[in-house]
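Researcher: We're reviewing a set of sequences before deciding which ones to prioritize for further study. For each one, I'd like a predicted 3D structure that I can look through quickly. This is Putative aldo/keto reductase-like oxidoreductase. If possible, include the structure in token form so it fits the rest of the review sheet.
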Amino acid sequence: MAEVTLGRTMITVNKNGFGALPVQRVSVEEAGRLLKKAFDHGITFFDTARAYSDSEEKLGLAFEGIREKIFIATKTAAKTVEEFRRDLEESLRLLKTDYIDLYQFHNPAVCPKPGDGSGLYEAMLEARENGKIRHIGITNHRLNVAAEAVASGLYETLQFPFSYLASEKELELVEACRKADMGFIAMKALSGGLITNSAAAYAYLAKFDHVLPIWGIQREHELDEFLSYIDNPPVMTEELEAVIEHDRKELLGEFCRGCGYCMPCPAEIEINTCARMSLLIRRSPSAGHLTEASQNMMMKIKDCLHCGQCSSKCPYGLDTPSLLERNLKDYEEILGGKAY
Ligand code: SF4
Ligand code: SF4
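Model: Here's the predicted structure for Putative aldo/keto reductase-like oxidoreductase, in token form for your review sheet.
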């Protein structure tokens, strides 16, 4: 059984964390069943956020009575000390606990530091002194903010997207975390659904012993897949290397990761699906992407106001409006009979 120690937090858990964003989309009963099953089979690290609607509440209900046997990471997107304190109290209440193992700033646009005038980092320290949180972390989608957080020495963990599609710069970030004795929590290890071979994703991350992947889990078959990796962690084989090489070639360059940070769109375009339709249609069963509802969704791209809001918010620096146009053109050609 592979384990990961998250840097100087000394939190040591199985190398399969549970990303609890998707449990928002299932009933309380179903979420409880999935979370308990995960725990019963060896998963002890659960990552949620104040921003994930009722995810914290579902964790709180599922883990009553076994709190000390698991590690809970949650996040606040507070911009003021008042919001920070309110978020923390609300998270503690919903999670039915009096402490949070890892409290993270949720994708801040700038890295909070003591003395920056926001008071946010000081609020973290105060919460740790009061025993309400045990460790301080940060999550981000922007390479520059993440790198600044690592260099600052202020954070015990970094949560950042990381998969075998990582660029050189992203690999440098992972290495910088190791040198700084920080835990690295890998989100989007399946790159928002573009990676369909989870064994290849796992085997790649296995090479990084300070990296903990958190798998977003909504369905039982997804959970079962990752649970099977507890007893039989996939190891890198020539076959899996070939899968990775093929995906890297196909997904090289600029592609939408589906993170949704560019939304909402004033023209109500579902950017995080539409901007990667060409990939989705080729990499997953296509029928679901060709329904009337999907076609209506894609046609909304024609309403784009070219306001530029999306590209200014995209952490990957994508020219989102032109990416949408390219996806629409391809989609219309597919509807017209183009082979894909
Ligand atoms: S540029 Fe188009 S897609 Fe982007 S936010 Fe504006 S209207 Fe929406
Ligand atoms: S365009 Fe950028 S911000 Fe929007 S979903 Fe794609 S990767 Fe995320």
